[in-house]
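[job 0412] stage=complex_fold ligand=magnesium ion status=START
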Amino acid sequence: MNYDRILIRYGELSTKGKNRKVFIHKLKRNIKRVLRNFEKINIEADRERMFILLNGENGLEIIELLKNVFGIQSFSPAIKTDKELENMKNAALDLFKKIHQAGETFKITTKRSDKTYYLDTNEINQIFGAHLLKNIPELKVDVKKPDINLQIEIREKAVYFSCENIPGAGGLPVGSSGKGMLMLSGGIDSPVAGFLSMKRGVEIEAVHFYSPPFTSERSKQKVIDLTEKLANISGAVKLHIVPFTEIQQLIAKQVPENYSMTTTRRLMLRITDEIRRKNDGLAIITGESLGQVASQTLESMYAINDVTNTPILRPLITMDKSEIIDISRAIDTFEISNRPYEDCCTVFVPASPKTKPKKEKVQYFESYIEFEPLISKAVENTETIAIAPKAAEQDGFGDLF
Ligand code: ATP
Ligand code: MG
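[job 0412] stage=complex_fold status=DONE, emitting structure tokens
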């Protein structure tokens, strides 16, 4: 590699005023985790930029990994010099000679965040353009479509040269927006919803309802594997596994069949909310997409949502199934979700659930049933496991954003 460091631009981060410190701290921590196998690197952060000093580590591999870190707007392999014009000129020419191939055109783009520097951007462009033209035979300028755009960044303490801007994943660093409880089924949608919440900085704990013996160990394993995929992106994720058999059996017995799905969802939401409260979460996340199935009509959501005031994030609400599948493939959860094992809702699903349930009706049916002790019991018997990222793996989502 022709560079000794990678310069990282925060993007949206820089607009966050007072919270900036938290964001930078989380981003640094997340980058450290993703690059944990590169022992020699150093990470330096200031208010505007972060730098990864390669110290001989493989820059190309590091670049690939950085594409999967939320909170990075863009990044560039770079070299650094002091602010002595002669040193700068030598460094620029050196770098350019290594990168340039015969016949390639160039331009220079200067960014000057140090406004006190004695040369302005036009002057710098001219000085460096002339210097390169003088020293490299037959070199040509093309300001519209150059093959090489030599970028010069004049900062307060140093100057950086780079020739490439690599787009980052955008979003906010995971953990910078608080914690949400992801209702994770074994399906295609909920892992994608978790991933998209992470993109906006939400730290996730997963909650899964299972109904042994109607659902098998293998369907539980499926959820563990999905959680591990999310952990590969964000770092360790807690998974709460809630025993739900008793409640589902009671619902099947006591609630009219066409309302059993609505009540089931309300109970799942109540229990998730209780687990959220105990774990200091601020939101609940689901994989619902409007109109996809009976429980996802607006009428259903209205009747189900009635049990809590907690914000419910539904990142997929406007998406078509094909869009959701594209993302699930990119984050490598599709194959796991597609394993054929049953899920607690498919086992108990009524033949014809109401697509337009009435809130008052479901409240009325439920008023005859004492759910509270069962809710407490389910929460008490919830098994919580911490799912670590797979040691050697870092899942990429490549060019999704
Ligand atoms: P998914 O693909 O995520 O299973 P879906 O299209 O099958 O979604 P539903 O089965 O109606 O839709 O579930 C809607 C949402 O409810 C899911 O995205 C998930 O957030 C939550 N959910 C459903 N079943 C469970 C479960 N067994 N445990 C936890 N959450 C669940
Ligand atoms: Mg499902």
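The longest strand covers residues 72-81.
[job 0412] exit 0
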